[in-house]
From TrEMBL:
Cellular compartments annotated: Cytoplasm
Annotated EC: 2.7.7.7
Organism lineage: Bacteria, Pseudomonadati, Pseudomonadota, Alphaproteobacteria, Rhodobacterales
GO MF term (any one): DNA-directed DNA polymerase activity
Residues with site note (Substrate discrimination): F20
Subunit (UniProt): Monomer.
This protein's encoding gene: dinB
UniProt keywords, alphabetically: Cytoplasm, DNA damage, DNA repair, DNA replication, DNA-binding, DNA-directed DNA polymerase, Magnesium, Metal-binding, Mutator protein, Nucleotidyltransferase, Transferase
Protein name: DNA polymerase IV
UmuC domain segment(s): 11-189
Note describing how the cofactor binds: Binds 2 magnesium ions per subunit.
One Pfam entry name: IMS_C
Amino acid sequence: MTEGGERIRRIVHVDMDAFFASVEQRDNPDLRGRPVAVGGIQRGVVAAASYEARRFGVRSAMPSMRAKRLCPDLIFVKPRFEVYKAVSQQIREIFADYTPLIEPLSLDEAYLDLTDQLEGRTATRIAQEIRARILQATGLTASAGVSYNKFLAKLASDQRKPDGLFVIPPEAGAEFVQSLPIGRFHGVGPATAARMEAHGILTGADLARQSLEFLTARFGKSGTYYWNIARGIDMREVKPDRIRKSIGAENTFFDDLRDLDAAILELGPLADKVWRHAERARKSGRTVTLKVKYGDFRQITRAKSLPRPVESRDEMLGIACDLLGPVFADPHGVRLLGITLSGLDEAGAGDAPRQLGLFDQA
C-alpha cells in the first residue's frame, strides 16, 4: 500500500497536554484542579492555560486582562522556562529510545517516524508505550496521533485530548479530512480560512471539490499543498535536523512607555537575554529586528541587515536603539518591545564574540 507512489509510513505526533500549566500544577499541589494561566502577569499575555481555564475560553496568546474577565478566579503563574526545557529533554530522551527520526516542533510536541523501527510491533502500540513512559517519568500526560503522514498525525493528536490516543489508518484518511471544518486544518490560518470561506470552501469536502488550477490561482504555491491534504496526502518527511531561523525576546510593560530614554533602557535586558541564550548554540546572525506594540495594540517591526554577522551584544543593542527612535513617538505609548536576531549561521569555535544561538520560546 502506498501514498502517492511511496510506501506507507508510520508517523506519530506526540503533544503534551497543557504542558506549561500542567508542569506548574504538578509542582504545586495548590494549583491542581484550579484554572491556571502561565504568563499573563500584570499586562502580559497568556503563554499557556490549564484545561480548567480553557473551559472558560482562556487560550494561549490571549491578553491577560481578557483572560481574567473570562475567568475571574484565574491564577497567573510566572513562567519557568528552564524547568519546561528540562522536562522537554526528559521526553525527547524517551523518544530517542524508539527512533532517531524526531522532529521537535516546540518544547511540548514532536513528530516521530517509526516506519523502520517497528520490530514486529505496531505504531499504535509504540505510541501507547511512549505515553505511559512519559507519565511515569514526568507525572504528565501526553496525547498522540498515529497515521501515515504528518498532517493527519497532527490532526489525530487533537482528537482525544487530554490524555488520548487516536489513529487514522490509510483507508480512512481522505474521508476523515473531508468531514472537518476548514479552520481545523493545520497549515490553514485564520486569514486563509476566511479567504477560503469567501469562495464557499467551509469543509474538507468543499476543498476536495476544487481543482488544482483553481487553488493555485487563488493561493499560489500553497494551492498544491491544500489540494493534497484535502485528499489525505502529505509527502513531507520527518526531519530531525529542523533548523530554527531566528532568536528573540520581548517584554510587555505594566505601564505604557512614553519616554524614549526609558524605552532604550528597557531594550538592554532584552539584548542581554537574546545574546546570552544565543551564545549557547554558537550561531551568528546578520539581521536585527525590532518589534513595537503600541498601547492600542497596533504592532510594527523594523529591521536592519548587515553584510556580516553582528559582532557583539552592544552592536545588536545599538541597532535596535537606532530602529526605535523614528517609530517611538505615538500618542498611545508603547506597550511591548522585542528584539529578534535572524539570518543565522554557524559561528567558528574561536569567534567567541560571534557565538550566537537559539533562544527557545514557547
